[in-house]
């Protein structure tokens, strides 16, 4: 007979009412169950303590190896899965995940795109066993999980805050990608003035938020949180808050105008006070100011040169430098006559000479 071809990844079975009503959170808290007693080849201890990590889009199964005594040969592991409404187990490789012959106690089911991985609204069960050459261990069955209800939603990523005029512009990316026909995110902003009361704004559907109504030139701290809404299973999962970051708002137009007016008035008052103070000091110490600003008498250059070199003939230099125009004299002639002779002098002569007498 021809060997049966390897099964490809099966389509998800129809969603049953039982799979939705099954409480996965309760099932996750239960312990892993082992398969029925092993066959003749089952001589290895089964893995133990399975854990499923569901964080954002991450889906990772981990376990603890069974203890082996006096055997150093390498042990590998095989992982299979099935849907709640089905009865057949499938190799994880059918999902595009390499979980065959694992050397580490871990299988990563994280989908590489929105079209791969487990459907978030279906209950999934996993099982794992150990293999050592021709020996196998019993299967360890992992409790059912439902991504819609059991996923942990992290905070938004790549948060950028731009301070504005008494406001903040907040931009970020979603915690992970969600198919539009299966769900969406809503966002909330927790903010508070430093040492003030915390406030919350939201919900916002956009990844760009304008947080306004703040006080200018004040420092505010904020956190952003995402809520995941799954329309496919009608559930809501609140996310975690982002790290606290603090920023200072900028002044608005009114504050700028007030600041300009205050600066102008302050400068004007300072100039008035300075001018008044100078005027008072001048009046109070007028004599001292006059003395400070009075120029001392200067020494003539000839005397200054003489003081530098007393051997110079200063008098001759002064006489030589004196110009004849500086010593202009008026000629005066005095004519006198005895009284007797004056009577004999004609009157005209006296009249002519009178202009020359000073």
Key phrases:
disordered C terminus, disordered N terminus, 358 residues, 9 helices, 5-stranded antiparallel β-sheet, alpha+beta, 17 strands, 6-stranded antiparallel β-sheet
List the helices and strands and how they pair.
Blueprint: H1 17-21, H2 24-28, E1 33-34, E2 48-55, E3 58-64, E4 76-83, E5 90-91, E6 106-108, E7 124-132, E8 135-136, E9 140-145, H3 147-150, E10 157-164, E11 167-173, E12 183-193, E13 199-204, E14 208-211, E15 219-230, E16 235-238, E17 245-248, H4 253-284, H5 286-293, H6 301-308, H7 314-321, H8 339-344, H9 347-353
Antiparallel strand pairs: 1-9, 2-3, 3-6, 4-5, 4-7, 7-8, 7-9, 10-11, 11-14, 12-13, 12-15, 15-16, 15-17
Walk me through what this model shows.
- It is a single chain.
- The chain is an alpha+beta fold and 358 residues long.
- 23% of the residues lie in helices and 29% in strands.
- The protein is built from nine helices and 17 strands.
- Strands 1, 4, 5, 7, 8 and 9 form a six-stranded antiparallel β-sheet that branches. Strands 12, 13, 15, 16 and 17 form a five-stranded antiparallel β-sheet that branches.
- A hairpin with a 2-residue loop joins strand 2 and strand 3.
- It is elongated and about 175 Å long.
- Residues 1-9, 14-42 and 348-358 have low confidence and may be disordered.
């Amino acid at each position: 007979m021809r060997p049966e071809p390897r099964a490809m990844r099966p389509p998800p079975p129809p969603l049953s009412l039982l799979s939705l009503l099954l409480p996965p959170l309760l099932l996750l808290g239960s312990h892993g169950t082992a398969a029925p007693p092993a066959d003749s080849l089952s001589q290895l201890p089964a893995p133990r303590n399975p854990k499923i990590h569901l964080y954002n889009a991450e889906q990772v199964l981990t376990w603890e190896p069974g203890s082996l005594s006096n055997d150093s040969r390498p042990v590998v592991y095989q992982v299979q899965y099935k849907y709640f409404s089905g009865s057949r187990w499938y190799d994880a490789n059918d999902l595009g995940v390499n979980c065959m012959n694992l050397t580490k106690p871990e299988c990563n089911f994280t989908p590489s795109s929105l079209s791969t991985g487990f459907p978030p609204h279906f209950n999934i069960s996993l099982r794992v066993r150990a293999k050592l050459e021709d020996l196998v261990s019993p299967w360890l069955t992992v409790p059912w999980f439902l991504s819609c209800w059991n996923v942990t939603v992290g905070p938004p990523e790549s948060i950028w805050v731009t301070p504005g005029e008494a406001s903040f512009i907040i931009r970020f990316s979603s915690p992970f990608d969600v198919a539009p026909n299966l769900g969406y995110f809503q966002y909330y902003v927790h903010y508070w003035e430093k040492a003030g009361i915390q406030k919350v704004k939201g919900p916002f559907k956009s990844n760009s938020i304008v947080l306004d109504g703040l006080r200018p030139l004040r420092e505010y701290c904020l956190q952003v949180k995402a809520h995941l809404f799954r329309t496919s299973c009608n559930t809501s999962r609140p996310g975690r808050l982002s790290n606290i970051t603090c920023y200072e708002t900028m002044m608005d137009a009114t504050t700028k105008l007030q600041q300009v007016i205050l600066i102008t008035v302050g400068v004007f008052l300072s100039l008035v006070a300075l001018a008044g103070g100078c005027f008072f000091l001048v009046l109070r110490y007028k004599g001292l100011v006059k003395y400070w600003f009075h120029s001392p008498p200067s020494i003539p250059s000839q005397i200054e040169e003489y003081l530098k070199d007393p051997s110079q003939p200063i008098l001759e230099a002064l006489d030589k430098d004196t110009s004849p125009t500086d010593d202009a004299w008026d000629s005066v002639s005095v004519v006198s006559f005895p009284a007797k002779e004056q009577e004999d002098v004609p009157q005209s002569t006296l009249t002519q000479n009178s202009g020359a007498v000073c």
